[in-house]
Q: What sequence folds into this?
C-alpha cells in the first residue's frame, strides 16, 4: 500500500479525551474514530488489526472442532422472555421497537438465539457434541463507556456455545475452550491468566475469566508468580484426548489466581509462599461459562438419549473480547513513541520509508524495493509522501509496524537500506537484494 493513496489520518498531539495509552495511540495512529460515546468507526489501519485478531481467534476455534455461523445483531424480545432474561438484563440492553410495534433488541449476547437454532436442528444425542460460534458485534449500553474500544457500547465479540448430552461431556467442551483460549492469546504475544470467576447475570456452575496484566486494567488481580512463569506457548494438543486436555486445564488452574471479587487473602497466604504472591491490575479479554441446563430447560432444547428418553442438553458459553484485545495488546506492547505490534497482528509487516521523494534515484530504488518485498510475500506500507524525514520516522514509530526499511540518497549510493527493528530499536545496513531474506530470517527465529 502506498501511503500517498491510503487513508491514515494520524494526529501529532495527544487527544485530550484519551485517558489511557492504548486509546491515545489508537486515536493518534488513525485507527479509530469516535462516532458517539462508546461507538467507533474502524479506520483502515485499525480494521486491519481487528481482522488479524479475528482470524487468529477463528483459526483456534476451528481447531477445536467448533463450527462458525453468523447470527444477526438484532433479536426479537420473545426468546428473551422465554428464558426470563428480558427483564433481568436491565438498562444495558438496547431495546428497539419496529414499525409494527414489535419489541426487538440489539443483542448483548446470544444464549437464547443459539439455543433456539440448536433446538430446531438437533434431535438425537448422536448429533452431539456440537459447538457453534460467531464473531459478531454486540451492544451493551454501558453506564460508563471509557478507554476507547476497551469498554465500548458497540464491540466485537467471539461467542461460542457448546451442547452436550451430559455434564461430563460438557466439561470436556469447556476444557477444550479453555485450552483454545490459552493458545489464542499466546499467538498474539499475550499471557492471559485464567482466573476462577463469579458467574454474574449469565449464570452457571463453572466459570473462568482470562486477564492480561496492565496498569490500566479495571480489575485488581492476585496470583502466584509460578503460574505466570509457566510455559504459555507450548500447547500442541489433541483436542479429542479428554485426559490431555483436562491436564492442561489442571496445570493452569492448580496455582492461585483470582480477581478481587473472588480473592481470599487467607487462601492466598496459605497456598502461595511469601515472595511469590503477586498482585496487579488486569484487563478481562475472555470469559467462559458452564451453565448446564439453564437455557435448554426453559427453551426446550432436548435430544433423545440412548435410552430413548428426551433430555435437556448441557451447555456452556465462551466469549472473547475481539475488539478489546486491540487495546489490550497495545497496553502491553508500546513505548513512548508509539505502538509495537507483535508481528502476528501487525497491520502491515513492513514500513518502507523513502527519505527523499522526488529524487529520481531514491524513488526508483524504493519502487524496486516495494515490489521486491511484496513479491516475497510481505505486506508493505510504502511511505512515498512528500514529508520531511523526521515526520516520517515518528509516524512509522507511532503506528508500530515490526520492521522499517529506510532508503535515502546515501543508501542508494551504497546499494544499502537501513533496517530498523521497531521492538528492539536495533538498526542494520543491509544490501538491497538481501533485505527480504534478512527480514524473513529474523521473523522465523
Ligand atoms: P466486563 O466485566 O468487562 O464488563 P463482561 O463480564 O460483562 O465484561 P462477558 O459477557 O464475559 O463480559 O463478555 C465476553 C468478553 O467480551 C469479555 O471478556 C470482554 O473481553 C468483552 N467485553 C465485554 N464487555 C465489553 C465492552 N463493553 N467493550 C469491549 N469488550 C467487552
Ligand atoms: Mg465477564
A:
Amino acid at each position: 500500500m502506498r501511503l500517498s493513496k491510503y487513508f491514515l489520518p494520524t494526529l501529532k498531539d495527544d487527544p485530550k479525551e484519551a485517558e489511557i495509552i492504548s486509546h491515545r495511540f489508537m486515536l493518534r495512529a488513525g485507527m479509530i474514530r469516535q462516532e458517539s460515546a462508546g461507538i467507533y468507526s474502524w479506520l483502515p489501519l485499525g480494521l486491519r488489526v481487528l481482522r488479524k485478531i479475528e482470524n487468529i481467534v477463528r483459526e483456534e476455534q476451528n481447531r477445536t472442532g467448533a463450527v462458525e455461523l453468523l447470527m444477526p445483531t438484532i433479536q426479537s424480545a420473545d426468546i428473551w422472555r422465554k428464558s426470563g432474561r428480558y427483564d433481568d438484563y436491565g438498562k444495558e440492553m438496547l431495546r428497539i421497537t419496529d414499525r409494527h410495534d414489535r419489541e426487538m433488541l440489539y443483542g448483548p449476547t446470544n444464549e437464547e438465539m443459539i439455543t433456539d437454532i440448536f433446538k430446531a436442528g438437533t434431535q438425537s444425542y448422536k448429533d452431539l457434541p456440537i459447538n457453534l460460534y460467531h464473531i459478531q458485534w454486540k451492544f451493551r449500553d454501558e453506564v460508563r463507556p471509557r478507554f476507547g474500544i476497551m469498554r465500548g457500547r458497540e464491540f466485537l465479540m467471539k461467542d461460542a456455545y457448546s451442547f452436550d448430552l451430559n455434564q461430563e461431556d460438557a466439561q470436556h467442551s469447556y476444557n477444550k475452550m479453555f485450552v483454545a483460549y490459552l493458545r489464542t492469546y499466546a499467538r498474539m504475544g499475550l499471557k492471559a491468566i485464567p482466573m476462577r470467576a463469579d458467574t454474574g447475570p449469565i449464570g452457571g456452575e463453572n466459570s473462568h475469566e482470562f486477564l492480561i496484566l496492565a496498569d490500566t486494567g479495571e480489575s485488581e488481580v492476585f496470583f502466584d508468580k509460578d503460574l505466570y512463569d509457566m510455559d504459555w506457548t507450548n500447547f500442541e494438543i489433541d483436542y479429542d484426548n479428554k485426559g490431555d486436555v483436562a491436564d492442561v486445564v489442571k496445570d493452569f488452574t492448580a496455582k492461585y489466581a483470582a480477581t478481587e471479587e473472588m480473592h481470599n487473602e487467607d487462601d492466598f497466604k496459605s497456598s502461595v509462599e511469601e515472595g511469590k504472591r503477586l498482585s496487579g491490575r488486569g484487563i478481562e479479554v475472555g470469559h467462559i461459562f458452564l451453565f448446564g441446563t439453564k437455557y435448554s430447560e426453559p427453551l426446550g432444547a432436548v435430544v433423545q438419549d440412548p435410552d430413548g428418553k428426551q433430555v435437556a442438553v448441557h451447555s456452556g458459553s465462551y466469549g472473547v473480547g475481539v475488539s478489546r484485545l486491540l487495546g489490550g495488546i497495545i497496553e502491553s506492547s508500546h513505548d513512548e513513541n508509539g505502538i509495537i505490534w507483535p508481528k502476528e497482528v501487525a497491520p502491515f509487516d513492513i514500513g518502507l520509508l523513502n527519505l527523499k521523494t522526488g529524487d529520481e534515484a531514491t524513488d526508483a530504488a524504493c519502487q524496486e524495493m516495494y515490489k521486491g518485498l511484496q513479491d516475497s510475500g510481505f505486506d508493505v506500507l510504502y511511505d512515498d509522501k512528500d514529508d520531511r524525514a523526521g515526520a516520517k520516522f515518528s509516524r512509522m514509530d507511532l503506528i508500530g509496524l515490526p520492521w522499517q526499511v529506510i532508503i535515502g540518497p546515501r543508501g542508494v549510493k551504497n546499494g544499502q537500506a537501513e533496517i530498523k527493528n521497531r521492538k528492539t530499536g536495533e538498526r542494520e545496513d543491509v544490501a538491497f537484494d538481501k533485505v527480504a531474506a534478512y527480514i524473513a530470517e529474523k521473523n522465523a527465529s
